[in-house]
Amino acid sequence: MAKEEQMKQTPNVQRPTLNAEVAEDGTTSHIKHRRSNILWRIIDFIVAAIFIFAALMKIFDLDHVIADLRHFHLGDLLIDLQGIRLADPAGFAHDINNYRILPWTLSVALAFYLPWLEMFCGLALIARFLYRGALSILTVLILVFMLATVAAKIRGLDITCGCFGHASQHWNFSAHLGLDLVLFGLVIFLLRGCRRDFTLSER
Amino acid sequence: MKFSLARQALILAALALVPGMGEAVYFRHNISWRSAVPPSELVTVAQARAWGGNVIWVDARPDEEFARDHVSGAVSLNEDQWNELLPQFLAVWSPGKKVVVYCSAESCDLAREVAERLRKEAQIPDVLVLEGGWEAWLKKNR
After folding, report:
1. C-alpha–C-alpha distance, residues A189 and A44, integer Å
2. Is A116 on the interface with B (CB under 8 A)?
3. Interface pTM, i.e. ipTM
């Protein structure tokens, strides 16, 4: 009781806070923190860019635009940019169906839904809004992609992942799995960082 | 604004539903929800039978199933033995004839794959897939 009474009398300013602890060891930790923040933001943008690109390749028919960019045909690029139209979702639905895990109806539903989910998660990472939700959705998506790819390989299915629309048409198993693993590593890195930020702010 | 992790994920999942559903409505005539084959490439048993002798029936099921039973006059052509069986098909095919490919049921994908290869690799026009496959044929012929 005496201790509690003493606590009540102690002004708030005198209580040790997180900021006071950080200030004790000077500017080094502040710079370190800022550097790691910049690193996280860069990784945020890389992961977001990959998922937004993947989504755009499935939502829009960008084959001509990508070909123009690859061959530096800048004159044609302007014309092709004007002629962009929605991609036929049947192509992506067939890519999902080729894994032979889901019935056709569900493959079609996912062909309409997944690209937009990837797009919103990518945008959430950039805007840092609904950030942890986006990271957890992306982690689940990558895990499912990886499991489906390995399962397809074990069952001897010759499939194209369709992850980047036609751009990934000729990817082999190792390229597909390699990208999934890199993305998984990056997303886990971001999740760990965001959990640390969250626990700090909760203290 | 702070939401719990599950709520954040749910909000994102719900947000993505809106344009996804919009796209589904926009493409409602371009893609079939029932079968992987577009409606324009499907043919019913009744339609195919009405063409009479102008049809070549192609059985895309595995050899054992073809040996057990098949549409009378059908040619076996499956992906496992594509190179061996294709010459037999080409021997009976002639320009102007319609080709109807079938596999075991509505849900099987073999007929679509064989039909696609016939169109792309063998450059055969007028290749259609039998709606409902062998099951539908049996129902109509009992």
Report:
1. 10
2. yes
3. 0.73
